[in-house]
Design goal:
By secondary structure, this protein is an all-alpha fold. Helix content is about 80%, strand content about 0%. The model has no long low-confidence stretch (mean pLDDT about 85).
Amino acid sequence: MSILKTLFFRPKTESETTTVKWINIVLVTMIVLGVFHFAFSRLDYPYNWEGIIEKYKYKFMIGFTMTLVISIFSLIASFIVGGLLVLGQRGSFLPTYYFAKGFTEVIRGTPLIVQIYLFYYVIGTAFGIENRYIMGVLIMGVFSGAYVSEIIRAGIESINKTQIETARSLAFTKVQTYRYIILPQVIKRVMPPLAGQFASLIKDSSLLSIIAVNEFTKNVQEVDSLTFSPIENYCILAVGYLILTYPISHLSKYLERRFSYGN
């Protein structure tokens, strides 16, 4: 009984050993794979993994690379948009305050697919922006930026005001207060929700296929229309997005440790 408790229950005073950790990871992996193997084996379905991967791997790689590029530039754009919205909401100039607040509420309160149609076919046409890839990055940046701004704003407002008052009493400038007191704490606090938001941004970029952006989901859908093999194609799609989003959680944990007081 004590052996089972050691292997499968977390200790109260310390973390589990590496051996115990890997035993549980392997056990969970085997159970999950066993369930999926049983489910797939019950299907009367002619699998064609080798033929699809061999014939269309170039198309998959093109779509994967395009999604990666769009996601990177969208992440940068969302930081810029989110930062500007935070400045607007925390500033004393009322027109920018109400614009930032209203803009954030509208973007967060409407479906992304509606925003894609509106921005591409109305705003893009009005300003003469015909490149669907540039518009795709702008749309995703604006959409995610509204959520990023709320995450950052909540992180800043979570800092106790007495810390800011203490910084003023020590003759810190506003820049020094943010650099040495507020930002190190904010970064640690907002990393988990930001990581989740950026992972969602990568997955949400699949909706850009509706304006014919040649990204991963659109390429997989085109292959599926040629091969009529939805299980193989969408499993490849799922693995591709997992490869894109999984590193974000690790980067988030690294930054949390980097900005923690213990380090």
